[in-house]
């Protein structure tokens, strides 16, 4: 009995916070747009009983998903989002891993402080932090003034309103999500394993490649997912830092929802986005399971 | 000091003991003299909760979803019309609006297109979409005889190219820029043509100058013009007039003008309406009636530099508002202004798609 309750809690959680909203979104994605409140058709009509439910389902179709294939805008936006998310994830890993490594190697009494410093930016609103990047990256901004005064460049660099600014923004914003899981993995690492490796003739670098890196793999993978998934659907960063040529699916979704008032197509875009994200997650988990079975 | 603190706490305690009446108003940002809000609370004893938004799309999404919790909202005419059809608003109870007699028939005649006979809304402010220019820079580049009131400044590729180094901004609003492009091109279907042929023509006109446009943005152009960062913008009258005043205050040598294009300009109307599910429609009517008081309406216009639809308020307007033809156009200019109608479902999709293509090249 107790076991059943324990298992039920996460399932109820999943049902209420994920499955039900998702089913509602799927329902809207199969509807047609209408000038009404809310702006789609059909609506449940309880008063008609069973007939009403049958009529309701007859009205649903996959038209909106077909529509997504007719305009190159959508797949271009998905592809561009994948590209931006992959590059930003790699950048976050490149910056985040050394930081996590340094934290795990730091004297034990420093670690809580270092951890605090990683979390500290969350105390300021995300929006304000992105706004301040606008001030840093603009043509008359801090970065350009600094580089100009040092004589490194003679013309201000155009960074704001380009894809580069988007990469910087995403890497900066999601860095803690990479550092924390990698740090957790590295901190657990048993130091005697490294000593053993060195005793057995490994140089420090090869010990890092052969011992540290494989043992931190789980943290790296978790961090990559924590960065990649939200970056894929990011809206705020590309709209504030990116230019009008920056194409991301989050912006397309916003236009469908707000400019076109087409909730059904917006929902279809969201469903496809979720499917795109679910596939790698499932593949990854299956791979993990196989590995565990092989080991076990 | 201590005494005031004690009495303040007492007042607050009293206030929360009795259930205070509230009215929730959702208006455009920087669109009212805030002293009016305090005055309304003082006169009626109703708590006024005032929120702001900066895009019609945002408001429309709230109206279509329903349950916004607002008692008074301020959509632009074209959006209002669509939301009325969707059933978002309730009919006004004219018996609660004795000040409605102050409204200006000239404006009402035009807003009837969106809300016939003003059953659902009253006009708050109206304005035009026209040309903001940095006079010194434009004349330096194009010569002393440059026509500052011609759309060719923006849409003639030759002129736009010369001005591009100095910077051109357009509104990020297809429903404003496309009619302007069609007006410039002298399109036979008129600026309000929603057909594919008209959109194709507009695309051709805008793509010809696309390389010379620095940015599509609806609010940055105020600062950019005032600081002299750009030379030229297609924008809303009151915004450009604010840029003019900011530049004058800063005394930075930048002189900004607003001109209604001689080829014709878009005239738009922001209307106050009451959502169908407003929690307190009674207080909403009181707010509308308060706004239609001539002195209150004049105070709002004197503050934000937009014209209003209230005839009786005109005697209370400052000379730099009522006397400025950029705000209150003369008869001849008024003749030259056009209004537009909303884009319907499929048309809206073509419009948004075209706009994405113009902006991003995809």
TrEMBL record, chain A:
A Pfam family that the UniProt record links to this protein: BPD_transp_1
GO CC annotations, alphabetized: plasma membrane
SUPFAM superfamilies: MetI-like
Name of this chain's protein: Putrescine/spermidine ABC transporter permease
Swiss-Prot/TrEMBL keywords: Cell membrane, Membrane, Transmembrane, Transmembrane helix, Transport
Bilayer topology annotation: Multi-pass membrane protein
Stretches assigned to the ABC transmembrane type-1 domain: 78-284
GO BP of this protein: transmembrane transport
Family, as annotated: Belongs to the binding-protein-dependent transport system permease family. CysTW subfamily.
Main location: membrane
Transmembrane region(s): 12-30, 77-101, 113-130, 136-153, 165-186, 266-284
Compartments where found: Cell membrane
Database matches in InterPro entries: MetI-like, MetI-like_sf
Domain of life, per lineage: Bacteria
Automatic annotation (TrEMBL), chain B:
Keywords on record: Periplasm, Signal, Transport
GO annotations of cellular component type: periplasmic space
Alphabetized CDD domains for the sequence: PBP2_PotF (cd13659)
Annotated signal sequence range: 1-20
Organism domain of life: Bacteria
MF (Gene Ontology): polyamine binding
InterPro entries: SBP, Sperm_putr-bd
UniProt keyword NAD, yes or no: no
One record GO biological process: polyamine transport
SUPFAM superfamilies linked: Periplasmic binding protein-like II
Function, in words: Required for the activity of the bacterial periplasmic transport system of putrescine.
Family affiliation: Belongs to the bacterial solute-binding protein PotD/PotF family.
Official protein name in the record: Putrescine-binding periplasmic protein
Lineage: Bacteria, Pseudomonadati, Pseudomonadota, Alphaproteobacteria, Rhodobacterales
């Amino acid at each position: 009995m107790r076991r059943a309750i324990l298992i039920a809690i996460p399932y109820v959680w999943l049902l209420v916070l994920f499955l039900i909203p998702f089913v509602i979104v799927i329902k809207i994605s199969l509807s047609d747009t209408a000038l009404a409140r809310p702006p789609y058709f059909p609506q449940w009509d309880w008063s008609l009983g069973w007939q009403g439910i049958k009529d309701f389902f007859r009205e649903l179709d996959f038209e909106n998903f077909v529509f997504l294939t007719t305009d190159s805008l959508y797949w271009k936006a998905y592809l561009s989002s994948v590209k931006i998310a992959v590059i930003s994830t790699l950048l976050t890993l490149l910056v985040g891993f050394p930081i996590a490594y340094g934290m795990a190697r730091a004297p034990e009494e420093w670690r809580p402080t270092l951890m605090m410093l990683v979390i500290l930016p969350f105390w300021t609103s995300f929006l304000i932090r992105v706004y301040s990047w606008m001030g840093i990256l603009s043509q008359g901004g801090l970065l350009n003034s600094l580089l100009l005064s040092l004589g490194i460049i003679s013309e201000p660099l155009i960074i704001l309103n380009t894809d580069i600014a988007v990469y910087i923004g995403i890497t900066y914003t999601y860095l803690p999500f990479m550092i924390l899981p990698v740090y957790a993995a590295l901190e657990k690492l048993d130091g005697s394993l490294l000593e053993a490796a060195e005793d057995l003739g490994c140089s420090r670098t090869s010990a890092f490649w052969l011992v540290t890196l494989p043992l931190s793999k789980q943290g790296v993978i978790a961090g990559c997912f924590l960065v990649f998934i939200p970056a894929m659907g990011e809206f705020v960063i590309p709209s504030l830092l990116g230019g009008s040529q920056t194409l991301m699916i989050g912006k397309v979704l916003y236009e469908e929802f707000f400019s076109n008032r087409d909730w059904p197509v917006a929902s279809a875009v969201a469903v496809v986005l979720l499917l795109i994200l679910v596939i790698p997650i499932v593949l990854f988990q299956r791979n993990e399971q196989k590995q565990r079975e092989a080991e076990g | 000091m201590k005494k005031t603190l004690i009495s303040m706490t007492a007042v607050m305690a009293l206030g929360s003991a009795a259930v205070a009446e509230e009215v929730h108003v959702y208006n455009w940002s920087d669109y009212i003299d805030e002293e009016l809000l305090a005055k309304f609370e003082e006169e009626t004893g109703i708590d006024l909760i005032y929120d702001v938004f900066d895009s019609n799309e945002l408001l429309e999404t709230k109206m279509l979803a329903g349950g916004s919790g607002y008692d008074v909202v301020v959509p632009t005419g074209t959006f209002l019309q669509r939301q009325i059809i969707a059933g978002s608003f309730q009919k006004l109870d004219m018996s609660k609006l004795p000040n409605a007699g102050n409204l200006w028939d000239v404006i009402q005649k035009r807003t009837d297109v969106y809300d016939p006979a003003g059953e659902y809304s009253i006009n708050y402010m109206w304005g035009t979409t026209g040309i903001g220019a940095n006079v010194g820079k434009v004349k330096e580049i194009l010569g002393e005889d440059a026509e500052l009131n011609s759309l060719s400044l923006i849409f003639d590729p030759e002129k736009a190219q010369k001005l591009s180094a100095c910077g051109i901004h357009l509104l990020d609003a297809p429903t404003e820029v496309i009619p302007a492009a069609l007006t410039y091109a002298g399109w036979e279907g008129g600026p309000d043509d929603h057909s594919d042929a008209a959109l194709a023509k507009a695309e051709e006109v805008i793509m010809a100058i696309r390389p010379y446009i620095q940015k599509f943005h609806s609010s940055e152009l105020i600062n950019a013009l005032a600081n002299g960062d750009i030379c030229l913008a297609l924008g809303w009258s009151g915004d450009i007039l604010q840029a003019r005043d900011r530049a004058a205050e800063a005394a930075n040598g930048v002189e900004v003008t607003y001109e209604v294009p001689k080829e014709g300009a878009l005239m738009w109307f922001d209307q106050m309406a009451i959502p169908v599910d407003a929690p307190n429609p009674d207080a909403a009517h009181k707010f509308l009636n308060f706004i239609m008081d001539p002195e209150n309406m004049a105070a709002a216009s004197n503050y934000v530099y937009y014209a209003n639809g209230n005839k009786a308020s005109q005697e209370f307007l400052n000379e730099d508002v009522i006397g400025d033809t950029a705000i209150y156009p003369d008869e001849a200019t008024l003749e030259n202004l056009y209004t537009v109608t909303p884009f319907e479902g499929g048309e809206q999709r073509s419009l948004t798609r075209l706009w994405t293509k113009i902006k991003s090249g995809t």
